[in-house]
Automatic annotation (TrEMBL):
Keyword Transmembrane helix carried by entry: yes
Lineage of the organism: Eukaryota, Metazoa, Ecdysozoa, Arthropoda, Hexapoda
Residue ranges of the TM segments: 9-28, 43-61, 68-89, 95-114, 126-147, 159-179, 191-209
Pfam families reported for this sequence: MtN3_slv
UniProt name for this protein: Sugar transporter SWEET
Top-level taxon of origin: Eukaryota
GO cellular component, one term: Golgi membrane
Record key words, sorted: Cell membrane, Golgi apparatus, Membrane, Repeat, Sugar transport, Transmembrane, Transmembrane helix, Transport
Entry's Gene Ontology molecular function annotations: sugar transmembrane transporter activity
Function: Mediates both low-affinity uptake and efflux of sugar across the membrane. Mediates sugar transport across membranes.
UniProt key word Cell membrane: yes
Family per similarity comment: Belongs to the SWEET sugar transporter family.
Gene name as annotated: SWEET
PANTHER family: RAG1-ACTIVATING PROTEIN 1, SUGAR TRANSPORTER SWEET1
Amino acid sequence: MILEDIKEILIVTATVSTILQFMSGMLVCQKFMKKGSTEQESGFPFIAGFLSCSLWFRYGLMIEDQATVLVNFIGTILMFACVVTYYLFTPRKKVVMRQMFIVLIVIVVTHLYARYEENTKLAIKRFGLITCCTSLVFFAAPLSNLYHVIRMKNTETLPFPLILMTWVVSLQWYTYGVIIKNTFMQYPNMIGFVLASFQLLLFVIYPSYQSPNVYLKDQSARLIIQ
């Protein structure tokens, strides 16, 4: 009875937190619009988020879990909006198009498999494994800028709102996965919590702004390379 009560509370809180997580991506996009450019920030976290939400939405339909379906339906829309916004303000449009093309192929192929696989239990198991992998990619996506963060000694290029909400959400969904005994929800969210914790630690170690000395050093290095 206690677990059932906790489950109902988690469904509500995790759903709200996850929607806020996806909406936090819009705060990052707002920064792009103010600056008029994405500068050194990577768009891969948004693309990985779009892929992850799309597959979890389908997985939610397969296991008939309304909470999973709802949050990932909303997440798919919001992450796609973030990808479009990033595309409009980035000078690396070809990279975004190439990554999105690959992601769309993955989505189409996996959805077709889920639809035409006659063995439902096998389809759920395999699709669950795929969604686990895409979740890990989404959680680790901000680390695509790790080299830049360490080299420049600042976390300006890391999406703090998205990372913070990922930390909260992954803990909630891990607990939910434990209650409903779904390992596909447990493992990726447990790892996601650890990865998000590491990324938050970077904000403690490095400032979220770039010092003038480091900036000048970086600009000089670029001029030498050119």
